[in-house]
Amino acid sequence: MYSFILQILIMGSLGAMIYLIARKIPLISDRAEENGLMHPKGFFGKVEFMIESLPLEKMDFAFSRFFEKKLRQLRIGLMKMDNYLVKHLETFKNIKNARHSLNVRRARFEKLYESQLENNGGAGKKEADATSKEIE
Prior knowledge:
Blueprint: H1 2-34, H2 43-53, H3 56-120, H4 125-135
């Protein structure tokens, strides 16, 4: 899994470098024309001509708009997920508090039950048992 992530990062970096180089090639060729250098003939001359003819500024603007939209959508999605998780954690917290309060009530009732048994000498045990079944 880690090698896959590293390969994605390397390919993304390579793509970014090619993109940056492609943005700067027209600037270099403009300077070459100013110095009186012409385009070389042959295969590399055709490649340079194709690269120069690309509307890189329009593509750059389109990529910027696309990434801006996607980052905003990602931000909204993350905020929705955060809200969902917070609500879900609050339900766990409420359940935990309800169980805790039930355990506290049960412990108080058991203390009360024991004190009544000590005071009554065992009388009223049936009544206390019926009350404990109602609480559960």
